[in-house]
Write a structure and sequence with these properties.
Structural class: mainly beta
Number of strands: 19
Largest sheet: 8 strands, mixed
Helix content: under 10%
Distance between the termini: 23 Å
Strand content: over 45%
Number of helices: 2
């Protein structure tokens, strides 16, 4: 995962930690390395540990405003308020071995939501493990919106309002969690669409990539709860 630190510098996140780079448009200077982002772990039974090595699988933390290439997501955490919204951080499993549990159908299908004090707000249960989470709360310009997107391993992509997700007084069944993208030839949420590797949303566009190529869809603002109101993905390129 690569995250912008400011206009001309970035952070590069790996399973061991993060490294800063400056002068990203010229000579690309390597800065400090920190292990702070990699001090987490996860067990196959769904137990999340804020300590590296305490669990079976390595976990990293990163800012959810950026797309990423990870194995699964086990938790998200709301941080301090920056500009209009609280930050959103992701805790992601980065060990490839965890895919074995997913393929066997024994991996955890839930995601934990924490507040800035690391207190659990809620646990969300899905029909498939969570692949990736992305927040639009701190995107630039008109792309900034209070929406958090959740991609499952079965290919379903959901969206939810961040203010509701972080509010402990809002019950899970009262969240405005909706399907964000529906394929033209399949509207069944139970189907395993499979082989999606990740996605990116920015402004009015959603891109999902996988073994079958790159798919794009328009972000549609709608108050309808029906999944038939969701934007549909159309193939843009293939392998």
């Amino acid at each position: 995962t690569i995250v912008n630190r400011n206009k001309y510098s970035i952070y590069a996140y790996t399973c061991r930690g993060s490294t800063s780079f400056s002068h990203a448009t010229t000579d690309f200077r390597k800065g400090n390395f920190s292990t702070a982002s990699a001090n987490y772990s996860f067990d196959g039974d769904g137990t999340f540990h804020k300590k590296k090595g305490a669990g079976d699988y390595n976990v990293i933390q990163y800012d959810a405003r950026t797309p990423s290439k990870i194995v699964a997501t086990c938790a998200i955490e709301f941080g301090k308020k920056v500009k209009n919204f609280e930050q959103v951080f992701v805790y992601a499993v980065v060990d490839d071995e965890y895919e074995n549990l997913i393929e066997e159908g024994t991996a955890e299908n839930a995601i934990i939501v924490f507040n800035a004090s690391s207190k659990k707000i809620r646990t969300l249960e899905f029909k498939s493990p969570v692949k990736q989470v992305m927040s639009c709360r701190h995107h630039e310009g008109d792309a900034e919106t209070d929406k958090i997107y959740i991609l499952l391993w079965n290919g379903m992509l959901y969206k939810c309002t961040g203010a509701m997700l972080m509010d402990p007084n809002v019950a899970n069944d009262a969240l405005d969690l909706k399907v964000a993208v529906i394929e033209e030839d399949d509207e069944n949420e139970d189907d395993d669409k499979g082989e999606y590797k990740g996605f990116c949303v920015f402004g009015k566009k959603i891109c999902i990539y996988g073994n079958d190529g790159l798919f794009t869809a328009d972000v549609v603002v709608s108050t309808a709860s029906s999944k038939s109101e969701a934007p549909r993905a159309a193939p843009r390129a293939s392998k």
